Give the backbone structure.
Amino acid sequence: MFALTPFEIGAIQLSLKVAGLALLGCLPMGLLAAWVLARCDFYGKSLLNGVIHLPLVLPPVVVGYLLLVLFGKQGALGRWLWETFEVSIAFSWKGAAVAAGIMAFPLMVRSIRLSLELVDTGLEDAARTLGASPKWVFITVTLPLILPGLLTGTILAFARSLGEFGATITFVSNIPGETQTLPLALYSLTQAPNGDVGALRLVVISVVIGLAALIASEALSRRINNRLR
Amino acid sequence: MQQKPYINIDIKRKRDDFTLSAKFQTKGGITAFFGRSGSGKTSLIDLISGLDTPDSGTITIGDQVLFDAESRINIAPEKRNIGYVFQEGRLFPHLNVKSNLLYARRFINTALDPVMFKTIINLLGLEHLLNRRPSTLSGGEKQRVAIGRALLAEPQLLLMDEPLASLDSARKAEILPFIENLRDHLKTPILYVSHAMDEVIRLADTMVLLDHGSVVAQGEVEDLMSRLDLRPLTGRYEAGAVLSVQIAAHDKEYGLTELSFSDHKLIIPHIDLPIGAHLRMRIRARDVSLSTSKPIQTSVLNVFKAKIIEIAPDGRSQCEILLDMGAPLIARITRKSVVELNMKVGDTIYAMVKAAAIDRHSLGLVGTRVRQIN
């Protein structure tokens, strides 16, 4: 049987934990950013759009290094975090989540924004004439209508977070049990002598997790789309 | 007794090169906003609903000030308690018909009166649709659901933006009776936007005529329809006087119905309505012919003695003649006849209306209301 070793279980758990935290941050902020980009008009909008999409076009190492400079003990944000909250995210799994979240963010924003732009604002107007305040319009009309986009964005961001490598290894290094997620563990095994079998097993695990996520999202979005049609 | 004006509007709004400037008041019943597309009808009700904001002026419904530019009052649309039926229905696609209908209830503190729910469902014929999805409904069904959804919010005023415009004539004919039902059975005042005069005549009591963003005229539908100066706006091919009549008798032998209005009788082919029923009908100007002497031995059943009030040449070969016979009547005849018969304003003349001219088609324009006496 394909029994998982403690090393593999640790890597899987860490990966899920990192990706989960990354999603938790990405989802509300992605929604906000998508809303601003889809619905608001202001000076400097294309600059904001550019900054949000930067991780998509930059080499991940660049993002990782920038994070290191910002959040390291000597970095501006890192020092502030340490002095006010006694928290340091560099070289910890939380840092890995930040790196994964930033890399996944543009994917999340893109798909939410696309579905937001498809929402007929006339329906939102109708809801207001029926007594819904803007907050309730969002909860009862907009949110249900962008659910497919939200779901797609979440799955894409989740997949991107699980696979994050370059920014992570640059920012938080490759520490077993702390920052050694699946791809990093796989990388270590490919560098070690006699690591072939272990590496292959991690490959299989990655494929299974990825496929499961895709199939689940496909099934979910089909159900949602049936409801909307 | 004269009712106090219920809705008072005096607003201005400028957008790009289009200025909307509207001042009017109206009491209950159905008030129609009539005008060509681009005359500002929809903009006007958007401003009333609160979805758009005027630059200046006031909007008052009953005792409630909804908008006052000077004292900076601008009630949010969700707090105005004004229902809005949009041209395209705008049903929520993620909710079934019942949830669409009850959408507004989650924002209302008092429980829904089941009798009211039943009444509205029955008036609009929605029972069998409750569990359907909006995407499976026909255009007419969607519009009925949209009307029900707006009414179940118990609005103090209902706005309808050409609710029939997106429907074919068969669907229109299907929905019109439902709207008449609402008018006759519910107390909610309705502002009804339309560019179809037959709908206005059939449904509305009061009419506000809009052109290029301004109110050109307002008043009772009958009064405005008999004004020749408004003819370019009310529509050339729609020309005809509108009469409020009552069913007086049925003639079974010849299959005729006798209508009465201000001491006159009008005979038309049989219509299936009870004696005493009130209705509004239009006599098309081209169905009225004139004679300077009293016609005897004519096939025309309806001959009225009338006075010429106004003669309006159309600049080509025809004239429209406004007559007073206790009620207004409009005739369209050739300019040649006007000259040859030497017709002048103030002359007494005989107007003839062929009963057979009032066919099923013109009867489609007849409102089947039973007016409440109050």
The first helix of chain B runs from residue 41 to 49. The interface with chain A takes residues 49-51, 76-84, 86, 88, 90, 92-94, 103-104, 106-108, 133, 135, 149-150, 153 of chain B (CB under 8 Å). Chain B has eleven helices and 20 strands. Residues 360-374 of chain B have pLDDT under 50 and may be disordered.
